[in-house]
Automatic annotation (TrEMBL):
GO CC annotation: mitochondrial membrane; proton-transporting ATP synthase complex
Pfam families in UniProt: ATP-synt_8
Key words of the record: ATP synthesis, CF(0), Hydrogen ion transport, Ion transport, Membrane, Mitochondrion, Transmembrane, Transmembrane helix, Transport
Record-level GO BP terms: proton motive force-driven ATP synthesis
Topology of the protein relative to the lipid bilayer: Single-pass membrane protein
Membrane-spanning residues: 6-24
Protein name: ATP synthase complex subunit 8
UniProt GO molecular function: proton transmembrane transporter activity
Stretches the record annotates as Disordered: 36-55
Compartments where located: Mitochondrion membrane
Family to which this protein belongs: Belongs to the ATPase protein 8 family.
Keyword Cell membrane: no
InterPro entries found in the cross-reference section: ATP8_metazoa, ATPase_protein_8
Length: 55
C-alpha cells in the first residue's frame, strides 16, 4: 500500500511547517494592526436583580 509510505509526505510537511514558522510567521507578526486596542477604562454597570414572579 503506497499510501502508508510516509517518506515523501513527511518531508513535504516538515518543509512546509519550517517555511511557515521561520519565514512567513515573523513577517506577518511585524505588521501593525490597523485598529490597535485603545486604553479606555472599562465601566461597570450596576444592575438591579429581576423579581421573578415564581420565587
Amino acid at each position: 500500500m503506497p499510501q502508508l509510505n510516509p517518506a515523501p509526505w513527511f518531508f513535504i510537511m516538515v518543509c512546509t511547517w519550517l517555511t511557515f514558522a521561520l519565514i512567513i510567521q515573523p513577517k506577518l507578526l511585524t505588521f501593525v494592526s490597523a485598529n490597535p486596542p485603545s486604553s479606555k477604562t472599562t465601566t461597570t454597570h450596576s444592575t438591579t436583580p429581576w423579581n421573578w414572579p415564581w420565587t
